[in-house]
Amino acid sequence: MMCTKLTKLGTFSLEELDGLIYESARIANPGERIDFLSRKFLNTDYAEATLIGDKDTPEIFVINLEEVDCMTFIEYIEAMRLSSSYQEFESNLRRVRYGSGIVEFINRNHFFTDWKEFNPGYIKDVSETIGGGKTVRIQKMLNVKEDGAYFLPGIRPVEREILYIPSEAVDLPILKKLRSGDYIGIYSALSGLDVSHVGIVVRDGENLFLRHASSKKEYRKVIDQDFRTYVADKPGIIVFRPKNIEHL
Predict the structure, then answer these.
(1) Region 65-73: what's the mean pLDDT?
(2) Which residues, 6 or more positions from 6, have their beta carbon under 8 angstroms from its beta carbon?
(3) Which domains are seen in the chain, by residue range?
């Protein structure tokens, strides 16, 4: 389907990106591939609202590698790890960001758990596998605030079961089960939201980091932070794991 497109490649040239994606496709392990790709985006500027489209504005297919928010950052990385060329990346980004790959505002993944619903072939929810009996299940009506207003006008509310691991339960045995390349959602206790933030697990020996696009004023860029310290004061985590995809 034809759609309006806006592309900003930031510090990359098209040839550099094509080569980077091609090189990453030779890394068999999906987590290592995600680590390799996401490392190239460290220090990329943070910016909110880089996507274009709402209930009153036609959706534009945006590729903005110049500046990212927490969700667009992991979308770009996931689409790249599924690809072996820049051309494939564009096609995969449509599938990662939009239900059925149809570029429309109503089809966009507005919630982290939309990934599980629309991309089950690429990722799986391993929160219960990681958390075991410490995992909490909760039913939420996404997009509906406590006062009944919508977070996103024009998007139909959806009732969804959320599985998350409370932060106080994230002990050493659980941390040891996390892998590089796992996508982490920071669970939100607010009505109508599944997560408040997302990022990527990076394991370096015994050290575990959250690689994410931070909105905090002292950073405003893609950074690595100690995982356990970061999640300690958060309500909990949701863990999605990339599936091994043969794409060559």
Answers:
(1) 97
(2) 52, 60, 61, 62, 63, 64
(3) 5-107 (1.10.3670.10), 114-242 (2.30.260.10)
